[in-house]
Amino acid sequence: MCTHRFAMVVLIAALALPMAGQRRVPKDLSGVRGFNYQSGEAIGHAEFWLQYNPTVTERDLDYAKRLQLNQIRVFVPYAAWEKNKEALRKNLLHFVRAAHIRGMGVMPTMMYKFGEWKDESAWPNARPFVADLVATIGKEPGLEIWDVENEPECCSLPPTPDNRLRMEHAVYMAKLFRELDPVTPVTIGATFAENMIEMGDAVDVLSFHDYSATRAKIRANIETAKHYAEKTGKPLINSEIGCIARANPYDVTLQEHMEAHVGWYIWELMVTGNWGTVHGVFYPDGTVRDPAIVAALLGFFRNRGDSFVEDVPDRENHLTEAAAKNKAWLAAPEADWKTGLDLAEFSANLLEAAQLAPMHNPPTRQVDLLRSGSPNISALRSMLETFTSLLEPYQLPAGDPRRSRPPGFIR
Known about the structure:
TIM Barrel, 15 helices, elongated, disordered N terminus
């Protein structure tokens, strides 16, 4: 009888334990290959959900699948929920299920009523919003992590008093999510690793962002984050990396995080109307901003080491010939439009193949635009002058050893 009573006491005590003990927290997130997402057609996060297009979503997730990406971070704003709750529920459910079918987990990132974090007495107002999201997707197998607030301390290190209040708001929201969803882990997407540490006790998963401009700084931030993660035993991710305008190239930051075995989410998958000028991999038609980003996502990086082999685009005299033919066309009193376009295309292909020209406006794109329009000799002349000036520095003089075959070559 005593044994039975003791067992009952143990059972009751176990049931009385915090629900966090049942939380589905992964031990290791180093295998996360993720991306932040908004469709390329949408202007903002609220518009994305309110004008949601399932076909577009599935198209974009298929692009991501081709790159073997496995996690998605997507922003869910209070404004969309407030305007059309039923639509948001329906669209969010489709999104999570479409991702799950493709082997991708979803980390919804919360955006609350604008400015409400400034009034602590208003913080409980978010409960119906949170509760509705939990009720909608809380039991979906595609739901991985709740990101309860994005960069609450943005962008100060150390935080200002205002930033600290917003960090307190993020901690409050983490507790609310943990209360309403006893299973799904929570995180806070901190702007800096140091601020992630300050909020670390409130989360199940540690998350920081990094857009540093040097490898040394990227490595230092990773080391800071990893040291704290090892100390606390909590899994770690970086949920925002990659920006061409912050000297944080995708291939550099991806290589550093991969080699450090830290899971990551790039900002962002699509070239959007919001951040497309400085972020993004795919255009809506499936073309890409820069093939080097695609290669890096698949773990292939540019050679910057001692084994680097310098390109010799004039090895077989084609570059010298191209420059000479361009000059002859430019000197002709009545230059032929089609011939000039073909010369421009040949030059553009040499420039791009040997990486001799800036690619922010690819030379081949410039040629294609001219081909698709009405004949414009003046524009073609200007283009050929520019292309020729880019080619000429790489001409090899007669007898240059780089024109010969390597020593010991046997045909």
